């Protein structure tokens, strides 16, 4: 049976598995975390060579600020009050996006609405909905060296891992890694390959909730849960 | 000749704004937003404005006031989801909205300040936001041509100014303010503190005074 996980359990499981990838990097690593599940990844980063970037102009984000710590002029790109990490620096928006466009951001972690088998990502708009904005999503998917998508596997029981995206595309063939609460896929070969999956689900069950077809890596293992 | 006095009241600094002008306004998520200058723009009453900004604040707050006061004709920016009144006004056809990827907005404003008429960007190529834009291939990838974004006026916020207009900023309130100071013909800076020339460390000035035409001191502080 496919387990029913609470929203928090889904978010935390995804965030921990994304952090595992980032913690395994061996060089200095500049990472941009998007709004939502990606922002939780910060809680699980233990690698001292990882520096967190937010597109509103900071490199060196610390923990989320408590009410007492909150500074009126210091937020992340999701408008949450944050603390400075030692060695932090501020930039204006042009340098912040110069870091992104110039390939100086090593990893971006983004939420998404849909990802398809060609590594296309749709995450900026649902037409005629309550959203009207793109923010830095289109800049990040083409600029960052590695794009990690952190996304719930299904919405209302339907797979968000599709053969072809139905929503407007943010970036084409830009997804490198996709992490859901049930699986980790790599797109290094241009199409999805299962790297790890959750121990509380079978491979057949995973296929039943995944619209796109995927290969299974010979070294496929268990996700952290 | 005496030094030109750039220090003005908000009303004086914005007296020159007229209907149909384009106005860049700094700020991101209500940080670095020159609220006192926005209030003065509401009082000025100029209409049919094109507002160039990252977002439009929240409903009735910050730049949201200009929309409520029906002074907006067109918006150029990146993220309006924080203000559902923008979404509603756009869907009813009351205002034009041009969505631009955030890095493209920043770079297009920078280009205006640096005298660069156009440049190529990867962001938005092939997407709905890139539709209708000229494209060109470099090294096997398709880029869209982006034009510089100029404005008649920039309203910005900084932490500290000296009397001639050198500026320093505070934390993430910097955001779009420095490039906007360069991208407009006339820039008004709202600041918390004004010091004498020579008191700011020349190595630490972020916006040079040549880009600032008027300084308004935040009076609420």
Descriptive overview:
The complex is a heterodimer of chains A (225) and B (221). Chain A has a single domain, classed as Glutaconate Coenzyme A-transferase (3-Layer(aba) Sandwich). Chain A is 19% helix and 29% strand. Chain A is built from five helices and 15 strands. Chain A has helices at residues 7-23, 37-40, 93-101, 137-143, 203-208; strands spanning 29-33, 50-54, 58-64, 82-90, 107-110, 114-116, 121-122, 146-150, 154-155, 158-159, 161-162, 177-179, 183-186, 193-197, 215-222. Chain A is globular. The two termini of chain A are 16 Å apart. With 221 residues, chain B is α/β, with parallel strands linked by helices. Chain B has a single domain, classed as Glutaconate Coenzyme A-transferase, CATH 3.40.1080.10. In chain B, 22% of the residues lie in helices and 29% in strands. Chain B has helices spanning 10-14, 35-44, 64-68, 84-91, 102-114, 177-183, and strands at residues 22-25, 49-52, 72-77, 96-99, 118-121, 135-138, 141-147, 151-162, 167-168, 184-195, 214-217. In chain B, the strands form two sheets. In chain B, strands 1, 2, 3, 4, 8, 9, 10 and 11 form an eight-stranded mixed β-sheet that branches. In chain B, strands 5-7-6 form a three-stranded antiparallel β-sheet. At the A-B interface, helix 3 and helix 4 of A face helix 4, helix 5 and helix 6 of B.
Topology summary:
The complex is a heterodimer of chains A (225) and B (221).
Chain A: H1 7-23, E1 29-33, H2 37-40, E2 50-54, E3 58-64, E4 82-90, H3 93-101, E5 107-110, E6 114-116, E7 121-122, H4 137-143, E8 146-150, E9 154-155, E10 158-159, E11 161-162, E12 177-179, E13 183-186, E14 193-197, H5 203-208, E15 215-222
Parallel strand pairs in A: 1-2, 1-5, 5-8, 6-11, 8-12, 14-15
Antiparallel strand pairs in A: 2-3, 3-4, 6-7, 9-10, 12-13, 13-14
Helix pairs in contact in A: 3-4
Chain B: H1 10-14, E1 22-25, H2 35-44, E2 49-52, H3 64-68, E3 72-77, H4 84-91, E4 96-99, H5 102-114, E5 118-121, E6 135-138, E7 141-147, E8 151-162, E9 167-168, H6 177-183, E10 184-195, E11 214-217
Helix pairs in contact in B: 5-6
